[in-house]
């Protein structure tokens, strides 16, 4: 039986270690969570190996031929064994609880120096505001190795913010503010996804998250401020890439979203007025094969007049030309 | 001795006596009367106000794009639907005769003498009417729940077809959201919970030596509430505006308040299913407490009875909370209250989750504890051994019952609720693993030095023990808050719930159905087909659900109709496996139907078990025992020379004498 247990335990351990179960750990919080994960995994592998080995051994050793009419040994119990298998799991789960509590405190610790980004979720888009710089973007851009506090609220129903590589997740609830502390420690491009069913477009509700060096981040922020002040097609392109690209394909912007129609196709030859209407009142005319009520209908409020103009400008010059 | 069935009715009597003929005219009448009442009141109210008399009740759904979430052009239709969903089922229950006896009594007329003609089944027709025999009701429950199991399973097949490749191929987002919402609701409220109620209904009075339940008429009514709930859920698919309810079976607000009118069908169906569940639980509790045969102390109760005792307590205490939570949503929708809708009026969305999960966590124990009881029965009989640690097994059921009320917010770790609540909830969640572990280890110890016979019930029971351990361990991961922060709302949770509900509850339901099939039908099921069913199910189940642990940790959220390209191949494999799993159900259905009609006649005790239900014929006499049995010992004394559980005098059923013990020498 010991052999079976070792075999099962070994096999499980190989499965646990060789298959990449967890995504890369790209935040300081992720590393701590992953350590806890491995602690729990070791315990679970041992317990399952124990259960499997006793079960497999018993099934083999104590099987009765079909014509056997005997009963088994009338073992009613064994107090010692029952005490052990009550106490040991109790100790194990207590250990896991304590370790979890410690990790929780660590990952939710709010450092004195941290940046605040306001997150707004609505059906079916994300929007990120940098309050000091007064910049709003459809893309979450963050400097590496700096803790950021996301203060989040929703406009309509409950959504949930999650980036798998950062591990941190929290529901975004209308009427209250919820918070997350994240310290990304690797540059790269990530995806923010919504993890609370929010309606028709739940599966499509994603946003781009980019982690860059601190200098690059500062330039990005300055660039956003300037673009917001200057307006025009250039700003339009940035806006499009960040806000619209997750769902729409547009060759000029290099985006490949497939949730909504390919704008190169559906906006070809359209007037600026038509493009404007498509943004602020998407349900007025839906492209063939697509459904109403997935594209947010409140861009007239979400975007300033100037942002809207620059976006329409940009689209007229690119998709509209085709 | 069995009496003749109900006297055949002729002429007008057929249409006025309780039954389907009366249903045929009363139900449409109730529909019409309700419509007249609701619309009439509205017209009268409007004209009193001086507004235009007739506001065309548009089917317009709320348009989130307009930002105007709380204007309800469809309120008249919604109100009408709610009124229908309350009045028409009541009319149906009255028409089919569920309240006849009480109506006569309440009206002061002389009640009809107890001739028991409405009790028991002699032909197939007796299964389709109000019947006070717990054995008939048990079968009614099982057949009905299997129907909804198949319906919900087909919905799962549709979902897996859609999820086989990235992108949308077969259904649109709204239909998909409806599919997983109705799938889960049917499986929970119309399959697992009532299937255990049905098995319990059949077996418990027999196991405790009683002629029937404490309240047979209430029992009949409890059953008939169930098809009403199922029909309500299924009919939400044909609602013209928006289709089936699609906010998940958890129906979180504000989404539930915002959704089109199909959502109301979920809220109302839950009320009917909840009522059925509560009434059955009351019946079980009173029966178990007051109707045990002489000599059957609590410490001589079979563990199935202990398990149903604990479950019934859970049902009675917890179910009103889900009813309340759905009523609050209904009021927010039609009365414009603000229990949950955020705004200056002070609604709080997370409050719904607390109320909902306060029931829905105990609900998962409602869905598992009877299965624990079945596992104990089957493992003891097919290993020919007493249940190891019987007293601790019974006490652990009680511990799970009590602790089960203290863990609800572990479903809400990432909800944004008060953060201090998370740690206590984690502690209680971890602690509940201890009594559950005790049970698993005891089942394993019951196998030790047994004489194991691998009949289909035993295969499912053994499959249950191992699969439930996997589900329980993934629950430990989810109970550790930092891990839950990553894994919550992903396919990791979908894997966990299916390991405990499919590998746990469903396996024990199958074990129970196969185990008691000879008793219920008087025929043996086909053992080869049973084994085939088990292996196909076991393999299909693991290939379908184990990879979902990986998908969730890697970043696939749940309740999504589409996903990232890189998950495409694994989703494809899972979908194929799920079709195989779905197909394995056909083996089961075929076995059940053909064996019931043409299976080998079953002896009273094919499994040589000691519990009381096996001491009477298969199927049992209409009133179970010709004489009250006398219980003299434990129900699990296998291997003990001369031990007896009960003595039945001159009942005509043969006595099971335990074989003399043959000690195995190592």
Structure characterization notes:
The complex is a heterodimer of chains A (322) and B (666). Chain A is α+β, with helices and mostly antiparallel strands. Chain A folds into 3 domains: 2-59 and 81-107; 115-224, Sandwich (Immunoglobulin-like); 231-321, Cytochrome c-like domain (Cytochrome Bc1 Complex, Chain D, domain 2, Orthogonal Bundle). Chain A has helices at residues 2-18, 28-61, 79-107, 214-230, 232-244, 263-266, 272-280, 299-302, 305-317; strands at residues 115-122, 125-130, 135-137, 140-143, 148-154, 159-162, 169-172, 178-182, 188-194, 206-212, 249-250, 255-256. In chain A, the strands form 3 sheets. A 5-stranded mixed β-sheet of chain A has the order 3-2-1-5-8. In chain A, strand 2 (125-130) and strand 3 form a beta hairpin. The longest helix of chain A is centred in the N-terminal third of the chain and has 34 residues, at 28-61. Chain A is elongated and about 90 Å long. Chain B is mostly helical. Chain B has a two-stranded antiparallel sheet with strand order 1-2. The termini of chain B are far apart. Chain B contains 20 helices and 2 strands. Helix content of chain B is 61%, strand content 1%. Chain B has helices at residues 12-16, 20-49, 75-96, 100-106, 134-163, 173-207, 216-235, 255-258, 262-290, 303-334, 349-366, 369-383, 390-403, 422-431, 433-447, 456-479, 481-487, 491-521, 527-554, 568-598; strands at 630-631, 646-647. Chain B folds into 4 domains: 12-106, no CATH class; 130-366, Cytochrome C Oxidase, Chain A (Up-down Bundle), CATH 1.20.210; 368-601, Up-down Bundle (Cytochrome C Oxidase, Chain A); 603-666, no CATH class. Classes of the chains: A alpha+beta (322), B mainly alpha (666). At the A-B interface, helix 2, helix 3, strand 7 and strand 9 of A face helix 6, helix 13, helix 14, helix 15 and helix 16 of B.
